[in-house]
MFS transporter
Amino acid sequence: MSVESIGIARRWSMLVIALTATTCAQVFINGAAFLIPVLHTDRGLDLAEAGLLSSMAGFGLVIALIPWGYVVDRIGERIVLSLGSTLIAAAAFAAAASDSLFAIGAFLFLGGVAAASSNSASGRLVVGWFPPDQRGLVMGIRQTATPLGVGLGALVIPRVAENQGIAAALLFPAILCAAAAVICAVGVLDPPRPPRAEAGEQMLANPYRGSNVLWRIHGVSVLLVVPQAVLWTFALVWLMTDRGWSAASAGAIVTAAQVLGAGGRIAAGRWSDVVGSRLRPIRTIALGAALSMGLLALTDWLSSPLSVALMVIASVITVSDNGLAFTSIAEIAGPFWSGRALGTQNTSQHLASALSAPLFGGLIGVTGYACAFAVAAVLPLIAIPLVPVDDADR
């Protein structure tokens, strides 16, 4: 095998490991949302209370993303990914062993703190190993970790929770993350980059000073993440309680939507490579998100069977922008700031996602699903003029 072939195989193996570790973390982070039906029916929690418990991992994630980003900027990806996956597994096993909902929430929070490690580290790993003309595609593949994690969780967790209880359901992400820790410890190689002492002043400079481009990207991403968070959190319970689907059938359709969403992220990444811009496609995706969420609200209000198909379509469109913004931020920030910049990006997005669960749960309880979907449709419209296309292209 030639040196070039070895290099190509190494790059793609890093992508596979990054995708695996992040997918396992996402099963833990988002898996609690699929406990909502059992928490609602068996434990007597209303949707706002169940949504709050399900978002505890997200709150833990939010407070730890920037610190983990700083750590990965300093010590590299291999240690962070291995340690983080180990800590997620420990928290998930502890949550599974707990009977108290308060204790489960506390361990979900701690697991979320640990899960923050994978977000910045896996993104840096991929950007560091691939050349610019492939980064849109490969980061799109890496970003499929979220819909794949949500889909895998939707396929397994609600059925296990319904049949065997919450503790058994929490063992699923625990085992996955334990396996991911071993894979990362054995397989990850930190990407080549110049030593900090040899880096130029421009490479070490704070990318947030003198420019608002990164802040605008963060703001756009916050507005666009709310519709996808609403769908991730409430699509399953909407299908079961409003449409009368079984847990197995609802889990299957949510899984299918997430798999299609993964394909949407890959296609959007390749699109950005072809047009030579990470951010111009986001404007089109934002318009599509607003239209699909608006039509979902309308068809749900009319009790039309088309609403299920539109839920799937909206689930695909609303997740397609994430990889584009993530790649752009990593490229703009550079190798000595990308950990913190990606941590800031994920902090803002996950804070919005975590707040969406109780807020939209309360809104649904008062006004119904159609109104909640309509509110979520407005936010992508606000995002469209905020995308910093010209500045980013320059």
Remarks:
- The chain has 18 helices and no strands.
- Residues 8-188+209-393 form a domain with the Growth Hormone; Chain: A; fold (CATH 1.20.1250.20).
